[in-house]
Amino acid sequence: MKQTFGEFVREKRKERSMTIKKLSSLAGVSTVYMSYIENGLRPAPSEKVLDKIAAALSLDKKETKLMRLLASLSHPKMMLNKDILAYISKNQSVADTLEFAKEYDIDEIEWRAFMAQMKDKYQ
Question: Of 97, 81, 85, whose CA–CA distance to 5 is shortest?
Answer without folding.
Answer: 85
